[in-house]
Design brief:
single chain; six-stranded antiparallel β-sheet
């Protein structure tokens, strides 16, 4: 019985889905601020980076501030996952793109996801937005929309 379950899990992993039919990255979403501990945030970021390298998905961090929003997206730029394309969208400035190393993506995401509500508000120099900041992994074709 247990060996059957392990075989199903292994087969689902190789097929790119979980036993319930969802893609492995489908649950990689988080709002900021979060009550997760640092180790949990690091594990989430590491998992997201693996999925970005092996699937046609990207990670997006959407920041809501009073009267404006910004969106930073990360997509693997090579097959080995050492370089990532960073796309940043600001309502006022439009799109900016650059290529950055995996380590920089990891550090940026960990920093953003461990930020507290007060830190986010202080950085913006404004009152807190009505919506929380969000981190999500989704198909690349769905990322580009601001």
């Amino acid at each position: 019985m247990a060996s059957e379950r392990r075989s199903e899990t292994r087969a689902a992993h190789h097929a790119g889905t979980t036993p319930d039919g969802q893609a492995p990255w489908a649950g990689l979403e988080m709002t900021v601020p979060t009550d997760r501990d640092h180790a949990s945030v690091v594990a989430l970021v590491e998992c997201a980076l693996v999925e970005l390298t092996h699937e046609t998905v990207g990670a997006a961090f959407i920041s809501q501030q009073v009267g404006r929003s910004t969106r930073t997206q990360y997509v693997a730029a090579d097959d080995v996952g050492e370089q990532f394309q960073k796309r940043h969208f600001d309502d006022r400035l439009g799109w900016q793109e650059t290529t950055i190393p995996r380590r920089a993506v990891r550090d940026e995401l960990i920093t953003r996801l461990t930020r507290s509500a007060s830190t986010s508000t202080e950085r913006a120099g404004e009152e807190a937005a009505s919506e929380s900041d969000t981190f999500v992994v989704k198909p690349v074709r769905e990322l580009r929309t601001p």
